Amino acid sequence: MPDVTKSATAVEDAVATPSVDVSAPVVKAEKARSLWGDAWADLRRNPYFIVSSALIALLLLISVWPTLFTSASPTAGDLVHHFLSKPELGNVGSPEWLGYDQQGRSVYARLIHGTRASIIVGVTVTAIVTVIGGIMGMIAGYFGGLVDAILSRITDVFFGIPFLLGAMVVLQSFVERTVWVVVFALAFLGWTQITRVMRGAVITVKQADYVHAAKALGAGTTRILFKHILPNAMAPVIVVATIALGGYISAEATLSFLGLGLAAPTVSWGVDISAGVAQIRVAPHVLLWPSIMLSLTVLAFIMLGEAVRNALDPKLR
Question: Are residues 293 and 115 in contact, defined by beta-carbon separation less than 8 angstroms?
Fold first, then answer.
């Protein structure tokens, strides 16, 4: 007759101590990623982001160290080099590579040195309007009521002014139109869109549970705004600012083309495009190359903004 006591003890031990397969691999819990982590993971796989980022990085390098790409002066003219002579496309990187303009200046050298003005205008105006518009939109969206009404009406007044027309009027009041004067004119009227976007984002975010919890725990207004609301409301603002940066570069070139923006001796693509219009039939290269450079720059920032928008918007994934 079998030993019932031993059998029962063995069953209890088997139930109490389940068998463990030591050879089975240990699966680590995957760390939860934030919105920004998911966005970065998507951006690294986006070819538009890679191409636009590489082009923007090259433009930034050119604007900071133009002498790495050419040793020719963008302002020194020599009438021995006639603008009707064909560009020597075989001599890549040389002063005569893309030909000369009507004053005997190297088109390639002016393309390289003109990058700085466009990048400075685009980046600086974007930074200024993002700070001003972001603060105004955050205050209006968070406090609401009378504060929101006043700031919204001020925004509507500036928003009703045509952007380029208003910039022309502002620039006409200055005798000397330098890069910083153009930055001021564009930033003076360009903050309205960021304000509206930030206001809408803050109104949505402030309804979240973690904001109500922070208020219940006694957190101050400044801490709530900059610790809880601002980081979660910045995504749409970054998208709009990135796309608008290309628009500001285009606006600077447009104003310079019309003779109301940058002027000689400042080297700018808009100035070169304006000067090249007169030779479009006999020497199209004088107009063609700065136009291509301007278009590529604006396209790069627009592509970057679209890639960021697709990565930050969960509905578009």
Answer: yes
* 122, burial (CB in 10 Å: exposed 0-12, middle 13-18, buried 19+): buried
**Four-point Cα dihedral 122, 124, 129, 134, nearest 10:** 120
The residue whose two tokens read 């309205």 is 192
What is the tens place of the pLDDT at every residue in 208-232?
888 889 888 888 888 888 888 988 8
Beta strands in 116-212 (DSSP E): none
DSSP assignments along 100-138, one per residue: B-TTS-BHHHHHHHHHHHHHHHHHHHHHHHHHHHHHHHH
Calculate the CA 226 to chain-centre distance. Answer: 22
Cα–Cα dist 101/79, whole Å:
9
Q: What DSSP element (H or E) covers 46?
A: none
Q: Annotate 239-290 with DSSP letters as a single string.
A: HHHHHHHHHHHHHHHHHHHTTSS--TTS--HHHHHHHHGGGTTT-THHHHHH
Do 271 and 259 contact (CB within 8 A), yes or no? no
pLDDT at residue 56 tops 50 = yes
Whether the ω angle into residue 265 lies within 30 degrees of 0, i.e. cis, is: yes
Closest CA to 253 of 280, 238, 275: 275
Tokens 């949505």 belong to which residue? 204
Q: Residue range 144-168: average pLDDT?
A: 92
Q: What are phi and psi of 106, to 5 degrees?
A: -65, 125
- Cβ-Cβ contacts under 8 Å for 175 (sequence gap 6 or more): none
- The arithmetic mean of pLDDT across residues 133-149, rounded, is 92
Q: 106 forms bridges with which residues in the sheet?
A: 100
Q: Does the reported pTM lie above 0.85?
A: no
